[in-house]
Amino acid sequence: MSASTILKLQKVGFTTEQVEALADFMDIQAASKADLGATKGELKAEIAATKSELNANLAATRSELKANIAELAAEVAEIRSDLKLLEQRMTIKLGGMLVVITGILLAAIRYLPPPLH
């Protein structure tokens, strides 16, 4: 506490004991430049640790996403393959139905009575 502050406190009615007690309290409570420097250093270290942890988490998340995308791509390829097989089976079934219907129509035409003249 500065001398001018002590004088001001005494002028407003503080006793010498009160001023000394207040000065002691302020000395204990006030942070010194060394305290602030140490705290600044600790904060920088914590920020750096947090940053590296976040970067590690981000890298892990990226690798997980890449693995998930690769899995999805494999599943999409499998679905496309299944769809091609389904398309082929449906084409074969449709062709078979056309052959059967044509056979039924030809048989029906054959057994129709001859036209009347």
Tell me what you see in this structure:
- The protein has 117 residues and is mainly α.
- 86% of the residues lie in helices and 0% in strands.
- The termini are far apart.
Radius of gyration: 46 Å
Percent helix: over 70%
* Class computed from helices, strands and strand pairing: mainly alpha
User: Cα distance, first to last residue?
Assistant: 136 Å
- Beta fraction of the residues? under 5%
Low-confidence stretches: none
Q: How many helices does DSSP assign? A: 3
Total beta strands: 0
What general form does the structure show?
Answer: rod-shaped
What keywords describe this structure?
mainly alpha; 86% helix; rod-shaped; 117 residues
List the helices and strands and how they pair.
Elements: H1 3-11, H2 16-29, H3 33-110
Short description:
Helices cover 86% and strands 0% of the residues. It is mostly helical and 117 residues long. The termini are far apart.
